[in-house]
Amino acid sequence: MQILVCIDDTDNLDSRGTGELAEMIAHAVEKHDWGKCSWITRHQLLLDPAVPYTSHNSSMCFKADIKIEYLQPIIDYAAEFLERESQVDASPGLCVVVTDEFLDTKSLIDFGYKVKREVVTKDDAYLLAKRLNVHLSEHGGSGQGIIGALAGAGLRLGDNDGWVKGKVEINVPNNIISVRELCSHSAVDKVKSLHGEYLGCSELILLGNMVKPVLMAGKAVVLVHKLDGADGPILWTTCSKKQLSNFEELRTLVADQ
After folding, report:
1. Which domains does the chain have, with CATH numbers?
2. How many degrees, rounded to 5, is the angle at CA 167 between CA 164 and CA 169?
3. How many other C-beta atoms can be found within 10 angstroms of the C-beta atom of residue 236?
């Protein structure tokens, strides 16, 4: 079976981030031979004074392919881990979703996008989790993190939100790489321009300071844009963090329409 594991609100400004804790849980799943985990995605939620958060109000989620008998051990491990490793002033939440044919995927995805644009209560989250038969639990503080955990699972389920945790580290001469070579990296599936076209395997890309794939149609996609005044074989370069943030904001607006 396939599951989604999502956590939120585990840290403070001086501690390890939620993404690092998600990475540690995923590593434990594989170390115990409970299953095989995907890369972790970061999902930006609403930034509003009415919503308590540490710095950026984002949740972290990963997929795992497991055997059914390991579902409860994974839940138990993640719950105990969050209670042990989260900061005392945090309000961590855990969500574990079984993505089978019985899941009301639309309701869960809709909830994820709702939490990106408006204030949602813990009661809202618990009511939906109960109706969908989804595991949702709080592990310290106010438990406010359950909202982001459930939302992050919905956004990952939708396959068109967020970006892959961390940077893709690639060392190539002059920072120039072909699309074929870039897609050979385990965290990159495709390369796409900001205008929407997928690049061919032989096209060359100048790597910028950050190579961070975004989640698009379930794939880890590196976004690029045309080099100013390019006149030669190298026409493209990777997007900056600001460009990626603008892209995320734009596709959230489009999803709301």
Report:
1. 2-158 (3.30.70.2200), 164-256 (no CATH)
2. 135
3. 20
